[in-house]
Design brief:
The chain has helices spanning 3-20, 27-35, 38-64, 69-85, 89-119, 127-144, 152-166, 169-181, 189-211, 218-251. The chain is mainly α. It has one domain. Helix 3 (38-64) crosses helix 9 (189-211), helix 4 (69-85) runs antiparallel to helix 5 (89-119) and helix 7 (152-166) packs antiparallel against helix 8. It is globular. The protein starts with a helix and ends with a helix. It comes from [Clostridium] asparagiforme DSM 15981. Pfam families: EcsC.
Length: 252
Amino acid sequence: MDSLEKELAAVEKREKKLLAGGLKKGKVKQAVYDKVPEKVGGLLEAAFSKAFKTVFINGTPLIERTFDKDGAGLEFEARDYIVDRAGNKKSLRRLDKQAKKDSKINHAATTAAGFGLGFLGLGLPDIPLMVGTILRGVYEIAIGYGVDYSSEEEKRYILRLICTALSDGDERSVYNRKLDSMEYGGGTLAGEIASTARTLSDALLVEKFVQGLPVVGVVGGAVNFSIYRRIAALAAVKYKKRYLVRKLRERV
């Protein structure tokens, strides 16, 4: 087993561990979920849906202003060349370096969004900011492994990735199979957005509801961080796995 195969085995082990975990609802949180008015869930779902549509249609150029897309692409090409030449563990690990650096920046930005607006007693207004921050993080990881995120298929892949990261049990298994299949013959981008909006709404229902109350909303910042971290961790694993599989296929 050479370096590429060993790295793929390590990534698949990490993937299995991530998918075995879940966004479990504790007893206290479950009690709150049961008390949250259904209308609140509907408002959150609509807000997330609108945010994704807005970002995908008009917001991507704005997100790209916040990081060096071209520089990241060139950096990937340089590191990919080194992998082709050396093909050792060290060259493969260099691919992760920039993604981890950018991920830390996005962790801070997501947490800040929750803390700042929570103190102001706001809940819904920070949803577009959170969606933009999540997508920026995934975009940077995608570029780091040589994937162009601009196509409709890749947008749908990203939405499925978010659903997989934030779901549990059988639902997660279904989302993960759809994610790995990379088949987009059925369904639409709008349908994927609706599913993702529902998943995010459920995952953040309690936290966003609490952010609607003065001061108590600071809890939301920590939860935003947790949600983003789950998505970023799975994105790093999935995109690296795609890269390694692609490199191994190029050998054939």
